[in-house]
Design goal:
Number of strands: 31
CATH architecture of the largest domain: 3-Layer(aba) Sandwich
Shape: globular
Number of domains: 2
Strand content: 35-45%
Largest sheet: 8 strands, mixed
CATH superfamily of the largest domain: Alpha/Beta hydrolase fold, catalytic domain
Number of helices: 10
Strand order of the largest sheet: 24-25-27-26-28-29-30-31
Helix content: 10-25%
Distance between the termini: 52 Å
């Protein structure tokens, strides 16, 4: 803790002169002497792998283009990395030995099924290299000894449709998070020598109301990440005594994640915690004594006082009777009589949860009397695995009708009005924005759709585009009539009609490989041609960014300021 700071990599320095610079994978060799890292300088997500000697600061000649995952073997000279195909799908795993020509790197695995992508990693205890081939509803894991990287990878459990599982290692066993006979997952373990299902031993059984989302193992403890009733939980188990406890959190609505925990032999677990009113904080938690120590907290300039703000959770009733959670935050004293402006954000796809996190820039909304809300719609993982399953494929419309139900509920309860309600979402959340705007254009004052997936039907008909084939398991394959008809019924671009629309701001990135810029541009052009009102449809194209937006703190703040200025103007707060 008292050692002198060493700078491994100064991104500010090396990115000078670059309009775009994203540092991606960062992997230090097990002996701490080498750094493998990958960089994208265009926003197109084509990453180049580099290696730096941390002892003398020199760059090695080893360099590989078009990489994704990277990890070291414990010999400190062998690197495994993945590369992408023409559709930007990670599909091959190579083995590289430092100092050798990359043209001689050995291909150790190739994923030929377009529904799957591959990744590579090393277990925290440095025992095994794990290779994961992953689809939206199926996994297959392979392993090789990290000390014998030239060995042959062996499969842990062969893939089969609808079987999802994750793997970690502890004490001579593979620990397996599986949905086999457990929709919300259970935890089992199996011996390394034969990890097949016949040898599985139950560790944490299936519980319908609790979804197991992940796991971390240390020398004497495990931390299992769970979600119950929409709230994250961290279950700590002493691996010797089997004693179990949960880490306690103070807020009614919050976000909590494991932080960077690279050390295996430790009883200190580092986690991140924040809420809508509590700035992002990092704690060191003693897994034995349950004591926690605040290591760092996000600094909020201007004398931020959390006691001046109120957060709450409410539920809207969906069309089918399902309760849809809404997280809200606002400054105390705001009148809840229908006159307040309210900005509602949503996503609802891929099983990703819309976390109630803190934002210092959001105070610009709150201090001006804007209520900020998050609609935890189906299609995300906010309420567990079934929440995701009920908002994908032929149930995708639940995502959109859930959001509409949240908006209507907030109006009914007098948190806002139609004239004061603005909404936003990006990527798949941009599809959500397009769909709800098509379905209920009367309900919203203004809309921000960022890198929006609004030409979904045409994109999913083109298998040459990034991730199209893999995402058949998320949206459906429109080459099949039932999926074509269903997607066509909600696709925003297809359903533009001669009618009135709210004010809309569409933001796209010219180098975006995930949602190509022309999706938003086509939608804007059709809206402008078809609408019968005088509202403004704006298109903002960032010529030097990709899907993830601009890099650099100040460029990101400029983007946020642009959106905030738009919403505050539409809300009538700023003229």
């Amino acid at each position: 803790m008292d050692a002198q700071e060493e700078v491994y990599f100064d991104q500010n320095e090396v990115s000078k002169g670059s309009h775009f610079y994203r540092l991606w994978r960062i992997e230090v060799s097990p002996d701490g002497s080498l750094l493998a890292f990958s960089v994208d300088t265009s926003g197109s997500e084509n990453y180049i792998l580099h290696v730096k000697n941390l002892i003398n600061g020199t760059m090695l000649n080893d360099q590989v283009e078009n990489t994704q995952s990277i990890t070291w073997a414990t010999d400190n000279k062998t690197i495994f990395y993945t590369t992408e195909d023409s559709a930007n799908r990670p599909y091959r795993v190579y083995r590289h030995v430092l100092g050798s020509a990359t043209s001689t790197d050995q291909l150790v695995f190739e994923e030929k099924d377009a529904l799957f992508t591959v990744g590579i990693d090393r277990t925290r205890d440095d025992k095994y290299i794990l290779l994961n081939s992953n689809a939206f509803n199926s996994n297959e894991w392979h392993y090789v000894s990290a000390a014998q990287p030239a060995g042959e990878f062996k499969v842990i459990i062969p893939r089969r449709p609808e079987h999802e599982y994750d793997v970690d290692h502890w004490g001579g066993y593979f620990y397996i998070r599986t949905n086999n006979n457990a929709k919300t997952f259970r935890l089992v373990r199996a011996p390394i020598s034969d990890p097949g299902e016949k040898n599985w031993e139950e560790v944490i059984p299936y519980r319908k109301e609790v979804t197991i989302e992940g796991m971390d193992f240390f020398s004497n403890h495990s931390v299992i990440y769970e979600r119950e009733k929409g709230l994250q939980k961290m279950r700590v188990t002493n691996m010797t005594s089997n004693a179990v406890h949960y880490i306690e959190f103070p807020d009614p609505v919050y976000s909590a994640f494991g932080n960077i925990n690279r050390v295996f032999d430790t009883n200190v677990f580092r986690f991140s915690y924040q809420s809508l009113t509590r700035p992002a904080s990092i704690f060191d938690y003693d897994l034995d004594t349950k004591e926690r120590k605040l290591i760092k907290q996000q600094e909020v300039l201007g004398g931020y006082d959390p006691s001046q703000y109120q957060s709450e959770r409410m539920f809207a009733k969906a069309e089918d009777g399902t309760d849809i959670p809404i997280s809200l935050v606002y400054k105390k004293g705001v009148k809840l009589d229908g006159t307040a402006p309210l900005h509602l954000n949503g996503y609802g796809a891929y099983g990703s949860s819309s976390q109630p996190t803190f934002s210092s820039s959001r105070l610009s909304y709150l201090d001006r009397g804007v209520i900020y809300g998050i609609a935890h719609v189906r299609g995300g993982g906010d309420m567990g695995r079934e929440w995701y399953d009920n908002g994908k494929l032929l149930k995708k419309k639940n995502t959109f009708t859930d959001f509409i139900a949240c908006a209507e509920h907030l109006i009914k309860e007098k948190y806002t009005s139609k004239e004061k309600l603005t909404i936003s979402g990006g990527s798949a959340g941009g599809l959500l924005m397009g769909a709800v705007t098509t379905m209920r254009p009367d309900l919203f004052k203004a809309v921000i759709a960022a890198v929006p997936f609004v030409d979904a039907l045409n994109t999913m008909l083109d298998p040459t585009l990034m991730y199209t084939e893999q995402e058949y398991l998320e949206w459906g394959n429109p080459h099949q009539k039932m999926y074509y008809d269903y997607m066509k019924s909600y696709d925003p671009y297809t359903n533009v009609k001669a009618r009135e629309y709210p004010n809309i701001l569409v933001r796209v990135g010219f180098n975006d490989p995930r949602v190509n810029y022309w999706e938003g541009a086509k939608w804007v052009a059709k809206l402008r041609a078809m609408k019968i009102d005088t509202n403004a449809i704006l298109l903002k194209v960032n010529m030097g960014q990709g899907h993830m937006g601009s890099t650099g703190r100040y460029e990101r703040l400029k983007e946020a300021a642009f959106d905030y200025a738009y919403i505050l103007t539409q809300s009538g707060i700023v003229k």
